[in-house]
Amino acid sequence: MNLQTVSFLTVVVLVTVLFFWLLVPFYGALLWAVILAILFNPLQNWLVRVLGGRTNLAAGLSVLACICIVMIPGAFILASLAQEATSLYNQIATRTFDPAQMADRFRGALPEFLRDLLPPFSLDGFRQIEARLASMLGQASQVVAASALSIGQGTAQLFISLGVMIYVLFFLFRDGTGLAQRIREASPLSPRHTDDLLGKFSDVMKATVKGNVIIAVIQGAIGGVAFWMLGIEAALLWGVLMAMLSLVPAVGAFLIWGPAALYLLATGQYLKGTILLCIGLFVISLIDNLLRPPLVGKGTRLPDYVVLVSTLGGLSLFGMNGFVVGPLIAALFVAVWSLFAQDQGRAGQP
């Protein structure tokens, strides 16, 4: 390559990096705009056919469908969740919900042979645990109070990101086909490699989002209803937490219903504890084991352990968006190396 070609490629790379750097503050909004555009693309294509090719009107109706199906229900759930979280916080602040008393009841309900097997957990030991638990909850309450002071800024940022997502989503619906074609034409890769990677990107988006969201909604709904029927306070809060944790394969919602069932059994509420344990083992966990491999692993063509590790890594690096970004990176990694191996195999053939 001559100097002019090298200089031009350097400028292309530099400008591309700077452009993506500008998008970083809104990467979550852009990511979910792309996800919704892919998931609702069949609706957009159907509307374009029904409306006689009027893409602007079809895109507007598709955006409206996304708002009604996804955003409005999500807003109601978040509002109810905030109300329950505030109620639980007030109970902690007024000692209506006393963790030290709960720990003392748990200690008193332990069988004698467990007390004998665990001599370090004497009365003083339990009092220390109670004191630490109360201190941790006190610190958490301070964090909640401090966060409440900056709620205005957080709300403003949320509405800005939401506006960016809706705005970009409209143009993705309207111009998505042409945009995908321009990406294919501008790609430095071969047409076969470009089509394979774009297809993998779309497949992973659909499988990961649909699979994880379906599993999360089902597990969270079952867990929340079970908590409500058993009289456990803040059932919606615990249900949402179970839905969020279910995004992590293998453990997931067990981190909520497991300790709750153990506490019910240890405090003598054997019927409630047994019911919750049975629901957790034979309904919630069974849903995860049955639905996750076909909905997530099959669509991404990734082994379960790769889905687990990539999801955990994505969540640790990118927050809640990581449950999409992690498996997406892993699937693209597998796809790129598979294409490379195929090319090497063809090159080695006589």
> Helices and strands, in N-to-C order?
HHHHHHHHHHHHHH
Please give the share of residues in helix. over 70%
- Main sheet record: none
List how many beta strands DSSP finds: 0
Number of helices: 14
Distance between the termini: 30 Å
How confident overall, as mean pLDDT? 75
Broad structural category? mainly alpha
Low-pLDDT sequence parts: 118-123, 140-153
Radius of gyration: 25 Å
Strand percentage, roughly?
A: under 5%
C-alpha geometry: globular
What does it look like?
The chain is 85% helix and 0% strand. It is an all-alpha fold and 350 residues long. The radius of gyration is 25 Å and the shape is globular.
Task: Write the topology of this structure.
Elements (H helix, E strand, L loop, with lengths): L2 H21 L3 H13 L1 H10 L4 H39 L5 H11 L2 H6 L5 H27 L1 H36 L4 H39 L5 H11 L8 H13 L3 H31 L3 H15 L3 H27 L2
Helix pairs in contact: 2-8, 3-4, 4-8, 4-10, 5-7, 9-10, 9-12, 9-14, 10-11, 11-12, 13-14
Short description:
The chain has helices at residues 3-23, 27-39, 41-50, 55-93, 99-109, 112-117, 123-149, 151-186, 191-229, 235-245, 254-266, 270-300, 304-318, 322-348. The protein is mainly alpha-helical and 350 residues long.
Can you give keywords for this protein?
single chain; 350 residues; mainly alpha; 0% strand
